[in-house]
From TrEMBL:
It comes from the Bacteria. This is EDD domain protein, DegV family. PANTHER family: DEGV DOMAIN-CONTAINING PROTEIN DR_1986-RELATED, FATTY ACID-BINDING PROTEIN TM_1468. InterPro entries: DegV, DegV_C, DegV_domain_contain. Keywords: Lipid-binding. Pfam families: DegV. NCBIfam families: DegV. GO terms for molecular function: lipid binding. It comes from Ruminococcus flavefaciens.
Length: 293
């Protein structure tokens, strides 16, 4: 069987990167002031960040059914027997259930995998799928491996500003005002497709340290005994300054020496809710052997 691998830009995998490694990537839509944009095609991360800072009305959206089936048809017409599609977690979006419903018309040739991941941890799963497909595994076998490790990942994110999350209703305006005055930085955790509050500390330096402590705790408990080459550390963020992004990556690499560390901007679906200049760190199980930047 010749099996194709497809994901969307919520994985952090760019269109160019996907083309380079033989992974099909669907641009995710973003709606700004009622106007539709497609990540990378008609809006850049920089333009999205600018709109976020201007406090414009921004929401993420599912890909249209037509864009999904059109891409599936194109892939299958290129000589593939089947394809696996790995969207963002069903716990964070309805796009996975929509894709599963649409795949029913493809007689088993399209297999949708709910990996319960997003952003940098979803990236690991997509590369795992590509490695497995290159090794001769079929769609059913790839699905079994990815769903087995679906909950073996944890993401921690600290917010620079509470402006965007206040608009989502997850925190009141009064609470945000108090937190801002006291320089309190909330830390969120994403695991298994659920976004929850994890901690609240004073100052960004303390927030960074708290996230590092959380990952070290995970490594010593949840991931105890797993070899370093089977674990992936992710650095992520919505940083406007490339130098700041590099400094964050270097800090994560220094903190977790000996682990492979990958950086990507946080997915647009997360950025829409948490705003700019956030920082994140993640840990997860991976079987990826492909060397990526």
């Amino acid at each position: 069987m010749k099996t194709a691998v497809m994901t969307d830009t919520n994985s952090g995998i760019s269109l160019e990167e996907g083309h380079r490694y033989g992974i099909y990537v669907l641009p995710m839509p973003v709606i700004i002031d009622g106007n539709d944009y497609l990540e990378e095609l008609t809006i850049t991360h920089g333009e999205l960040y600018k709109a976020l800072n201007e406090n414009r009305d921004i929401v993420s959206s599912q890909p249209s059914p037509g864009s999904l089936t059109e891409m599936w048809d194109k892939i299958l017409s290129e000589g593939y027997d089947e394809l696996v599609y790995i969207p963002m977690s069903s716990g964070l979006s309805g796009s996975c259930s929509t894709a599963k419903a649409l795949s029913a018309d493809y007689d088993g040739r399209v297999v949708v995998i709910d990996n319960h991941r997003i952003s940098i941890t979803l990236l690991d799963s997509v590369y795992d799928a590509k490695y497995l497909a290159n090794s001769g595994k079929n769609a059913a076998e790839i699905k079994e491996v990815l769903e087995k490790n679906a909950y073996s990942n944890d993401i921690y994110i600290t917010l620079h500003s509470l402006k965007r999350i206040t608009k989502t209703g997850r925190i009141t305006a009064a609470g945000a005002a108090i937190a801002t005055v006291l320089n309190l930085k909330p830390i969120l955790k994403i695991q298994g497709g659920k976004l929850d509050a994890y901690a609240r500390v004073r100052g960004m330096a303390s927030a960074e340290q708290k996230m590092f402590e959380a990952v070290h705790s995970d490594l010593e408990s949840k991931y105890a005994g797993i070899p370093k080459n089977k674990l992936s550390i992710g650095a992520a963020g919505t940083m406007e300054d490339k130098r700041a992004a590099k400094q964050w990556v270097d800090k994560v690499k220094a903190e977790f020496a000996g682990y492979k560390v990958t950086y990507r901007p946080l997915a647009c679906s997360i950025a829409c809710h948490i705003g700019t200049n956030t920082k994140g760190v993640a840990v997860g199980i991976t079987s990826r052997t492909l060397k990526i930047d």
